[in-house]
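Hey,

The postdoc asked me to send both predictions to you directly instead of through the lab channel. I've kept everything plain text so nothing gets mangled by the mail client. Protein one:
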Amino acid sequence: MTATSLAALAGGLFALGGVLIAWRFTPAHPDLATALDGLDPEHSLTPPVAPIELDDAVPDRVGRWLYRHLPLPEPPAADLALLGMPASRFHGQKLLYALFGMVFPLLPGTLVMLVGVRVPWVFAGVASVLTAIALSFLPDYNVRSDATRAREEFTRALGAYIDLVALERLSGAGPRQAMESAAQVGDSWPFRRLAE
């Protein structure tokens, strides 16, 4: 392979990375049948995230280490509580994404330099810092979008729950009994939260 073809390959890999990042942020076009099923109160999406559990996943361990050794900014507590995600996992993901962003731009630059094309290290350094900063905000975006979807699902389930409570009250049940019975009807995560 010639130096030109290797440089073109490195540029293509870098462009592919940019396309994949842009593709991640474009909104998806949902299937109509799935979207209509999601509007039915009987059907529910899966719970956004499992309840809070401190396991030994890498982001959890990294986040706990960060909490022990560094002062960290406040995470989006309401969104994390809704999703059942501990703040340590959130901060661990932010650091891991930032580290990936630091390393990713260096790979094409190193490949190009191995071919013999001189690229100033300043460009690679600036690209690494900018990519690290950009990718460190990806967990914020993910938590915000997941929490928005969870709130929409909870709103639909709450409307169904209120209708069920009204039906129980019309059938002669007391207020507390009506609320408890209505919460036991559904098995989706919003109904489980309401039952709690």
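Protein two:
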Amino acid sequence: AMVEYFDFEEITAEQAEMVVALMELLLLEDNSRTAFRHLSRLPLDEDRKDLQDVAMRFGKQLRTMGKFIDAVAIYERLFTLENSLLRQESILWTAYCYLKADNIESANIYLSLTDDYEPRDKEFSLKCMIEGLIMIREGNAIEAMHSISQGIVFSRLGLEWISELMLTSGRAYEAVGRPEVAGNVYRELIQFYPNDPFASEARERLAQLPEPLATDEEKTTAG
């Protein structure tokens, strides 16, 4: 009821955060229709960087909850803003969400709309990760390994997708038949991001890897 009284044309960043908190509660109650009704009232335009940030964080929340198609609706509003600093990232996340929703064709289409990033660009490693995930799905493990390796080399600490990038790297090593390297990647992920959801998946994948074969030196020592 309080949110209904907000002047959405003049809404402050603090009020917008309250709207998002309400939308998150509505999503937990599986009431996405009302949540998106509130979101649609936010004046997302090129002059309101604060509201763009709010929408981007809400998109992340939807991804975390596995509501990928709902997240696409958020990103579509953002990438229509031609001069927004978040436009390219929102297109990349749209490609990611379609990939997670098993719509590879749409994922490739949106990926093709993104810029040709330089390794110094923040979005470079995100695009590499999405390309790698698509290639793994399509059975192109070697190509995936090349793209993901580029993303790892030029990634930086603090990026929200770094843990998934590491997990994807491990998956690619598994796909090319190098489980020992995959295991090392999973252990690093678990060590650096122990409470991350992708670390949980890394633990599961690590437990399923075959035991490494003993070297001749190890056999001699054991004998």
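Summary for protein two, as requested: The first helix runs from residue 13 to 28.

Thanks,
C.
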